[in-house]
Amino acid sequence: MFVAICLLAAAVPSHFFGTGMMLPRDVPIPVWGTASPGERVIVKFGGESAVASADGKGDWCAVLPSFPASEVPRELSVGAVGSASPTRFTDVVVGDVYIAGGQSNMQFPVYGESARQHDMKGNALVQIVDDPLLRFSAPKRIFSAIPTNDVSLTWRRSCRTDLVRKLYDGTHEEGSFSAVAWYFARYVREAAKIPVAVVDVSRGGAFIEPSMPPETVTRGKELGFLPLGGHQAPGAMWNAMIAPMVRFPFKGILWYQGESNKNDTNGVYLAKMEALVKGWRREFRNPDLPFLYVQLAPCATGHLAVQLQQSEYARRDPKSAMVVTSDIGNIANIHPRDKDTVGLRLALRALKRIYGFSEIEDASPEPRSAVADSSGCVTIAFDNAKWLYVLNENGSLAADFELRDADGRWHRAKILNFRDTWIWYQRKNVKNGEFAGNEIVLSSPGVASPTAVRHLFNPPWTGCVFNEASLPLGPFEIVFSPCGAEGDMVQSAPF
Fold first, then answer.
1. In this structure, are 373 and 474 located in the same domain?
2. Which DSSP helix (H) or strand (E) runs through 274?
3. pLDDT reported for residue 483
4. Whole-angstrom Cα distance, residue 151 to residue 200?
5. Same domain, 243 and 118
């Protein structure tokens, strides 16, 4: 019915386009829609124009030349050639546009953050929300069994009315935009000095399968897709919310998902994640499309298998970058409230990798090797490890390391090579342990000949190891031979 109506109508742009939107900078700009077959359509913006003819199905796509980033609001007009009444979209700016996907931790809204009334740095949200050059949009959270050719969304400025107040339109919380995406955009805009927008396609409780494009869905049996239905069916969210936007040159992908797939062990989630990213890059016709994602925080519901597979994916894909959140989780709650820090860490990744801020430290400590000596001590060497320290608010200087003995039993390990010091943290002096160099030395009284070392595998999760950039160490396991042999990184059970 939709197609039939469009074929009889004048030139109609996709509903992706609208007043208050952001166009991409420094790349040719596609604008598409429907018209009568053979009808010529003209698109105008910023003194430039592009003409296209509708094909036999009534589809057309006109490509405007590239524009630099611009804060100046302009008009985008679309209409049939010679039409006296084209469709006009006002307040259109040019900058970097990202797409954000995942499940509830990505969808978690700004108004949820505003319950504190302040961001993590003590700034009143009411004072920092308003910025006309931060733009956001979210399609209605629908699903489809087949790819669709249009998407319904509304572009919004960052303002308290639209982003903090909770509104409801029957299908999703209109205006209650993703807090992670909002903080990310805010930090990138502050540093890069350009307009930034995010289109949010996340949905609470979503598995990874519904965000898969059709070509990947055909590999469902091979990839271990779960027999899901409705909006959870493989490809269902992609078909309805993402497929209609694949012509648009997004700057990058933000991803925060995995809780629903916590039972995908033995490399299953890793395979799905690889397929997802390859599929998105293929469909968006950009093999270098950056993929910035959040590793799940420790939680009593059990996310370790997914966490380890997320770490492994970061090692396999140099065009991706992972954010570690082991220090800001809530053991009793699957939804950590500190979305500010998550957005900031995603922004650090983007600023260094996409925008070329080489001086920024954006990576968490990463274990490189481990050595067990004849006395039973284990020395772990790290990358991204300038000024390692342990921070634990209770002053215990504990961290969640374990050593495995020759019988396969795990024992809590003690850190040997730090000195006590104090740090100003969250407006109070907190005891911490500072390391010399990029190594951590461990021992355990019950382990004379260690065979492996691991971190953040079991509760209670007590303290975290950080580098100079205050980025935390995530979960890992290293298996090695005793008496001096260097360990190799592995992702063993429950990987």
1. yes
2. helix 268-283
3. 47
4. 12
5. yes
Cα R_g (the chain), whole angstroms: 25
Burial level of 462, CB count in 10 A (0-12/13-18/19+)?
Answer: middle
Which pair of structure tokens corresponds to residue 152?
A: 């319904």
Which of 45, 60, 92 is at the close of a domain?
92
pLDDT of res. 5: 40
> What string of DSSP letters covers 183-227?
HHHHHHHHHH-S-EEEEE---TT--SGGG--HHHHTTHHHHT---
Q: Identify whether the C-beta of residue 296 lies closer than 8 Å to the C-beta of residue 310.
A: yes
Tell me: do 105 and 140 sit in the same domain: yes
Same domain, 282 and 222: yes
Beta strands 87-102 and 252-256, pairing class? parallel
Question: The tokens of 485 are what?
Answer: 């042999």
Domain for residue 359, yes or no?
no
Residue that has been written with the tokens 């997914």 in this structure? 306
Spatial separation of the C-alpha atoms in residues 208 and 226, rounded to whole Å: 10
Mean pLDDT by 10 residues, the chain (495 residues): 46 96 98 96 97 96 98 97 94 98 90 51 54 89 90 83 47 64 94 96 94 94 91 94 97 97 95 97 97 92 91 96 90 83 96 96 93 91 88 72 94 85 63 74 92 88 84 92 49 43
* Structure token digits, residue 364: 């968490």
Residue 460, phi then psi, degrees to nearest 5? -80, 135
pLDDT at 393: 65
Domain match, 121 and 40 both: no
Domain count within the chain: 3
Domain harbouring 15, CATH code: 2.60.40
- Identify each DSSP E strand in 336-480 by its residue range: 366-372, 378-383, 389-391, 401-404, 410-412, 414-415, 418-425, 428-435, 439-443, 452-455, 464-466, 476-479
Q: Are residues 432 and 330 in the same domain?
A: no
pLDDT of residue 1: 40
Same domain, 72 and 123: no
Q: In the structure encoding, which two tokens stand for residue 436, read together?
A: 């010399």
Q: Tell me, what amino acid is at 13? A: P
142: burial class by Cβ within 10 Å (0-12, 13-18, 19+)? middle
Instruction: Kindly state whether residue 360 falls inside one of the protein's structural domains.
Output: no
Q: Are 162 and 224 in contact (CB under 8 A)?
A: no
Of 197, 172, 208, nearest in space to 94 by CA: 197
- Two tokens, residue 461: 């999760």
Q: Are 139 and 178 in contact (CB under 8 A)?
A: no
Q: Please check whether residues 297 and 177 belong to one and the same domain.
A: yes
Residue with the two structure tokens 């996409």: 354
Four-point Cα dihedral 448, 452, 453, 456, nearest 10: -130
Domain hosting 445: range is: 366-490
Which amino acid appears at position 404 of this protein?
A: R
